[in-house]
Structures are given as C-alpha cells and as structure tokens.
Amino acid sequence: MKIQSILVVDDDENDQFICEYTIRKYDPAIHVLKAFDGVEALDVLRGDTPDAIILDINMPVMNGFEFLDRYAEEFEVHAPIVAMLTSSRLGKDRERAMQYDFVKSYFEKPLVPDHLRVMDELLG
C-alpha cells in the first residue's frame, strides 16, 4: 500500500515548502495537508485521518511532544505512520518520541525521498 495523504506539521514556512515539494516530486498523487503547530494539527485530524503525519518537535503554541500527548489522549484511531522530522539531534528527543507506539520513524531535516520510501515501506 502506498501513502495517499500526509499531514505536515511544522511552523516554518520554508520547511513546509521543502516537505511539499519533496512529497510532490516523490508522488504527485499524495494529498498534502498542512498545519503550522500542534493545535492546528489536532483541528485537521478531527476531520481527516491521513496515512501519515510528519511532525516537527520545536514549534510555538503546541510543540511536537505536547501534540503527541494530546493525540494519544484524544484519538482512538491514529494515523498508521507518525514520523518525526526535526533538526534535533538529541538522543533524548529520539527516545522520547519513539515511546509512542504510533511513532514509527525519526528523521533529521530536510525531508528527502528516502524518508518517504521508508514511510511507504512501513505502511505496506
């Protein structure tokens, strides 16, 4: 099975652009949803369940870890793949993120086609 839709959660417009560009080059059929912080992401997810979520850690309003906590509490059905995409190279951030059973990958920015291939493999 291939990814049909991805929610990109990142407060940086440049990172959003890079993600969307990379996703479109990888597979133009993938529907890209956007949120600029965890609160917006939760709002999107109340109306749509994408195949994958790409999530930054450091964001204002609600950061990636706060989002993961709320997502775990509020939603019984999770996206099949949640992948952290961050500039953080801290091992403690990776360990913390991977404690959630729905977080399947932890990638360093920028998003590259190999990250999407990994996510496709995890989905299929």
Task: Provide tags for this entry.
alpha/beta; five-stranded parallel sheet; Rossmann fold; 124 residues
Report on this model:
By secondary structure, the protein is an alpha/beta fold. It contains 5 helices and 5 strands; from the N terminus they run βαβαβαβαβα. It has one domain: Rossmann fold (3-Layer(aba) Sandwich), CATH 3.40.50.2300. Helix 2 runs parallel beside helix 3. The radius of gyration is 13 Å and the shape is globular. The protein starts with a strand and ends with a helix. Keywords: Phosphoprotein, Transcription, Transcription regulation. It comes from Shinella oryzae. This is Response regulator.
Structural topology:
Blueprint: E1 5-9, H1 13-26, E2 31-35, H2 38-45, E3 52-55, H3 64-74, E4 81-86, H4 91-98, E5 103-108, H5 113-123
Pfam family, one: Response_reg
Keywords: Phosphoprotein, Transcription, Transcription regulation
InterPro entries: Bact_response_regulator, CheY-like_superfamily, Sig_transdc_resp-reg_receiver
